Amino acid sequence: MENNIEQAPGKNRQTGPVIITVILIFFTIMSLMAPGKKLKEIRLKFGPEETSENQPDERLYSDSAYMALLKERSFLQARTSMAETDSVYMTLNLSDSTANLEISGVTVHSVKISSFRFSGILKRTDDYAISSMLAQPMNITGDLATIKKEPLMVKMAPKDTSEFKPDVIPDTSNYEPVNYILEMDNGIRIYVYQTTDTLKSNNRRRFYFDLRDRLSTAWQYAKSAAVFKVPEYHPFIKIRLPKADAKIIYRALPRKGQVAVYM
Amino acid sequence: MNDNIMDDNSSYMEEGLPEDNRGVAVPEGLRSLFDKLLASPKVRKVIIRTSVITGGLLAFLLLAAFVLYIVPGMQEVVSGHRPKLLSDPELKEDKNYKKQISALSGEVQRLSRKYASYTSGQSYIVINTTDNKFFLYRNKELIRTGLCSSGSYTMLKTEGERKWIFKTPKGKYRIQGKITSPVWRKPDWAFVEEGLPIPSATHPSRYEYGVLGDYALSIGDGYLIHGTLYKRFLGMPVTHGCIRLNDEDLEAIYNTLAVGSKVYIF
């Protein structure tokens, strides 16, 4: 009896790590299944239509010349569609490393992307479905940023002339670090980071900004895994831009703005 | 019991040291202090607790790093397979292939032409409201650039329900009218802002002369491109939504843009 009582804490000590390890393995497996699920969804939605009359020639989708033209057409289709509006939109050409702001087909601001990387599933640009998906402009559904979209200052109207104070010169100093994430309606997330800053505090804020996003994603994954559901994977495009340009782009894009990408 | 442990430890320490350093690496006083400390159950408890906490923290950090960094990294490795693109000479001779390529190529050319046609050869102006700069184009070439002032992003609120946001609208606009020697018809907010009572719509105090410069170009909804008395504020966001320019730039823009010319604001 005494022996049993003494062994119990030891067993508990072993059970804890075992449970954690099992949960961790389960979380990892579910997380690793997520990109595959997303790719399947994209293929189902944007893949070539197969009907009894229309049997696509599979060889075409592995032909470099055909796929290059398809990519170009997709980008042009998305840009043409956005040019029909009077709003500001962004085009990312990762092939020549440029990010442009355009309005009705006119490039109003162009910037060289310092560096970029993107999700594994988007690397499958030879995939017909990915090219087709990018043929439609992506709509921004939400964003998370270290700067304000509209730096509104609230001013209470004076009750009479005695209370009136002339406006002071606005503070245009550029001290805030500029990092933001644009969430798209097709699940893609565009991360824009300012290029490496010499200010340590800015680098630290970027780390916390990134950490916040990772924590939020991990939490979403954990919630899905808890109900035995494969979590939703968000393909990403991460770009680094000079700080001033990153700010211009963020402020210029409407909250529900559009983006086209060429890879 | 405690004495035994002390003896064991000291003999272990001495055996572990090289012969020359025995008794030299740890001074005698320090060693006895260590031995005394280790003999104390309180100190042992503290050491064990510290080790457990440090170990727990390390394990937590490792776990966090695994979940936050390693798993997302693994996702990319798993999904990053890129099938190889081929250039099959046999396929290139295929009639259907040639037809498909020709159709696709034709469409790309058509879309490229369409897209290029959006940038007209007519004069237009681009206004950057973040940097407060303008860019004037003629025949697709930049002919003038300089500073301007745009909306201040101030929200003016009264104690009642009224409020105004002073920001410059973004997007594509057209010059809707051109005026020389413009007169400013002060809107309600101009009085509210100064704590003055709002006069009737036709009251003479509504009209102010000489504050908008020599020219004004209307882009609709009451927004103007005009001159300013406050030239020291050019390059800053200080206006109520209009675009202010210095006299020379305003004249050049007035002379370059026609009614209907495009104004791109971002």
Brief write-up:
The complex is a heterodimer of chains A (263) and B (266). With 263 residues, chain A is of the alpha+beta class. In chain A, 41% of the residues lie in helices and 22% in strands.
Write structural notes for this entry:
The complex is a heterodimer of chains A (263) and B (266). With 263 residues, chain A is α+β, with helices and mostly antiparallel strands. Chain A has one domain: L,D-transpeptidase catalytic domain-like (Beta Barrel), CATH 2.40.440.10. Chain A is built from five helices and ten strands, in the order ααββββαββββαβαβ. Chain A has helices spanning 2-46, 64-83, 128-134, 200-226, 243-252, and strands at 88-93, 98-103, 106-112, 115-118, 138-145, 153-156, 179-184, 189-194, 236-241, 258-262. Chain A has a nine-stranded mixed β-sheet with strand order 3-2-1-10-5-7-8-9-4. In chain A, helix 2 runs parallel beside helix 3 (128-134). Chain A starts with a helix and ends with a strand. Chain B is an alpha+beta fold and 266 residues long. Chain B folds into two domains: 2-74, no CATH class; 124-265, L,D-transpeptidase catalytic domain-like. Chain B is 41% helix and 23% strand. In chain B, the strands form five sheets. In chain B, strands 3-2-1-15-7 form a five-stranded mixed β-sheet, with helices on one face. In chain B, strands 8-11-12-14 form a four-stranded mixed β-sheet, with helices on one face. A two-stranded parallel sheet of chain B has the order 4-13. The longest helix of chain B is centred in the N-terminal third of the chain and has 39 residues, at 41-79. The radius of gyration of chain B is 39 Å and the shape is flat. At the A-B interface, helix 1, helix 2, strand 3, strand 6 and helix 4 of A face helix 3, helix 5, strand 1, strand 5 and strand 7 of B.
